[in-house]
Sequence to fold (229 residues):
Amino acid sequence: MHAPDSYHSRTAFWAAQSWHAGYLRRCYRWALARVLAEPKAPLHAPGARVLLCGTGSARTTRTFLDTLAEHGLRPEVHVVDIAEEALARSREVVREGERVRLLQADARQLPLPDASFALVETDFFLQLIPPRDRAAVVGGWARVLTPGGAVTTRDWVHEDERPTALEGGMNTLRLALLRRSLGVPVHALARTEVETLFSKAGLRVELHPLHLPGTPVRLPLLNALLGWR
Fold:
């Protein structure tokens, strides 16, 4: 599974849009606030490590690092992406003194030690993974989490009840628009599949409809996913 260069060119284009930074900042603030609300979350511990899986663009990396700092956190951050092009962009925005390690790797086979990260963060990632490979990705996230750690991400998750013809058509149209805008296959993702994937990996899953006040973009069916170790 290799993301084509066109994908990273397109993600860089979308990341340059003015609304994108606001979207990321609100997503990261919400996710970190939710994780830190757990008194025993390992993210509170000194020396905690965090994994950003799939950076896509330098703005993603920079916004994530800034949001960690806003919460008073300065963990060691590992940034993983399958494409060196994406990592090269992120390398340019890392500031002196920040503990950031960039690693080219496939999310299906993370070359990282077991139980070593307090948080795995990613965004709109599972829908880019073919269904046959999703168990390997989620299982890898669960493997590298410390006890009490969490995975946070956002994806379009459709309900499993039978949609009307109009709803089915709209879902098909959304996927087609995403494929066209990103230049790579985008796959449907159902609630029961998410729950099964996380449960089999030993994670407790929470799905939250994502409402981001002040963000001009409204994406129907966008859910925040949290998986707790």
The chain has a mean pLDDT of 86.
